[in-house]
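User: Working on a comparison across species. This one is HDOD domain-containing protein from Massilia norwichensis. Can you predict its structure so I can line it up against the others?
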Amino acid sequence: MKNWIARLFGGGEASAPATPAPVDPAPPASSGPTPAPGNTATREPDPILDFWHWLTAGAAAAAPTPQAATHAQLVLAELDRLIDAPLDAAGLVPRVPEVIPQLLRSLRDEGASSADLARQVARDPALVAELIREANTPYYRAAAQVRTIDAALLVLGRNGLRMLLARAAFRPLAGTQGGRHTRQAAPRIWRHTEKTALAASLRAPAMGADPFEAYLAGLMADLGLIVALRLFDGMLETDALPQDPAFVSALLGRTRALAAHIAMQWELPPPIPAAILGAPGSGPSAVQPLAAALGQAERLVLLRLLVDSGALAQDDPAVTGLAPACARVFERLAPAEGSA
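Assistant: Here's the predicted structure for HDOD domain-containing protein from Massilia norwichensis:
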């Protein structure tokens, strides 16, 4: 997988950088809530625990046992190992559809015509449906109902198609294959991933970051979490996932570090792994524009998901106190009318 991602998502013929971008260590345990962007209220959602509680809301509650605690520590130890050997994590994520890298190659070729792109899209009926559905979303505000591949390509443009293909390439990574923990959490992980990628791309210009790199960073940021859930599938014998705050903080710190190391292994542009690690607001890369964009995106998405799930009121100060630019992105993240 890393070869085609290196060539196609990197924007050019990729090779390992002579001097790797600095990589922060796994983020430390949270010592308190992280402010949502632009908010001045004192009441704030906790970016670590609230996200984990939202993600595991369907998990059955169970009293902690010594065996479960041992298994949880084994998961952390295995994540530590994978951080040092991210290539080993590749076997825990699915492969991408073959048509996606072919299309991305064509998008890098300025000589490729719209007709060429249309022919390649037409080879995958699911991709055709997604392309036309995307062109008809309020985001693009098409003047009339889009019904053909050619019309959809015209509405999206090359950059819109590139983001759609990136999303289609990453969706299988958050698939429902695996055991009960992965199957249960996968739909929520993908909802979080998709919204984070969109929000990051929308906030990137104001931060001085590249929107497509921000989109890729958003798509990559949850990948370590998928790996962790697959590890839980193999180690836990109950439906419940650990809820201890110290463990949750340690777990999400490691999954973030693993996602960054996988991004480095796949030779994505160096700002992407640095942004994944810096997004929580700590470490050397936290000051980088891409990290700032991803960090704002993650906090806005958390607010959006908490409001949509009923865990947070729409008029909560954490929402009403958002800065205007962040409030606009928050509204863009609302679920489409009629969706679940």
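For your comparison, note: The chain has two domains: 2-94+178-332, 95-174.

User: Helpful, thanks.
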